[in-house]
C-alpha cells in the first residue's frame, strides 16, 4: 500500500497532540480506489475505539486504517525516540474495523473484530 502525504512519518508530538496544529489528511491507495485513514482530524471529538471480542477500549490511538484493518497506537506511558522529537508507535492488526457515525457527520465510534 502506498501512503500519499506531505510527511506523515514519523509522527511528531505537535502533529498528534496540538489541537491548533494544521490537520494532515492521509489517504491510502488500494485496488478498489481511495480509502480514508482516520486520524484526529477527520473523526469527532472524543471518538472511542473498542476491541469487540475483549470489550476493551483501546487508548492512545493515533490512526485507523479500515481497509487494511490496522490501528496505529503509541505506548502507554508515551515513549520518545533517542532524539526526543518523535513518538514511538506500534500497529495492532484486526480482521475488520467498522466506523460508526450515527447522526454525526464524522465517525464517533470504531468497532474492531478479530484481533491478530
Fold and architecture overview:
By secondary structure, this protein is mostly beta strands. It has one domain (2-115). The chain is built from one helix and nine strands. It has a nine-stranded mixed beta sheet, with no helix packed on it. The radius of gyration is 14 Å and the shape is globular. Mean pLDDT is 74; it is low at 1-34.
Task: Please summarize what this structure is.
By secondary structure, this protein is mainly beta. The protein has one helix at 13-17; strands at residues 2-4, 26-30, 33-38, 48-51, 56-57, 61-65, 70-74, 89-100, 109-115.
Descriptive tags:
116 residues, mainly beta, nine-stranded mixed β-sheet, 1 helix, 4% helix, disordered N terminus
How are the SSEs placed, and which strands pair?
Layout: E1 2-4, H1 13-17, E2 26-30, E3 33-38, E4 48-51, E5 56-57, E6 61-65, E7 70-74, E8 89-100, E9 109-115
As laid out across the biggest beta sheet, the strand order is 1-2-3-6-7-8-9-4-5
Overall SS class: mainly beta
What's the story with the biggest beta sheet? Answer: 9 strands, mixed
Number of strands: 9
The total count of helices amounts to: 1
Helix coverage percent of residues?
A: under 10%
Question: Which stretches of 5+ consecutive residues score pLDDT under 50?
Answer: 1-34
Task: Please state the average pLDDT score.
Answer: 74
Taken together, the total number of domains comes to 1
**Assembly type:** single chain
Amino acid at each position: 500500500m502506498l501512503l500519499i502525504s506531505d510527511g506523515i512519518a514519523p509522527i511528531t508530538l505537535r502533529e498528534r497532540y496540538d489541537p491548533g496544529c494544521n490537520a494532515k489528511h492521509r489517504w491510502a491507495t488500494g485496488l478498489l480506489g481511495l480509502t480514508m485513514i482516520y486520524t484526529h482530524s477527520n473523526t469527532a471529538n472524543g471518538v472511542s475505539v473498542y476491541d469487540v471480542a475483549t470489550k476493551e477500549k483501546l487508548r492512545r490511538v493515533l490512526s485507523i486504517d479500515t481497509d487494511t484493518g490496522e490501528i496505529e497506537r503509541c505506548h502507554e506511558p508515551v515513549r520518545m525516540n533517542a532524539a526526543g522529537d518523535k513518538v514511538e508507535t506500534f500497529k495492532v492488526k484486526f480482521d475488520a474495523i467498522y466506523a460508526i457515525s450515527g447522526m454525526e457527520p464524522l465517525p464517533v465510534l470504531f468497532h474492531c473484530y478479530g484481533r491478530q
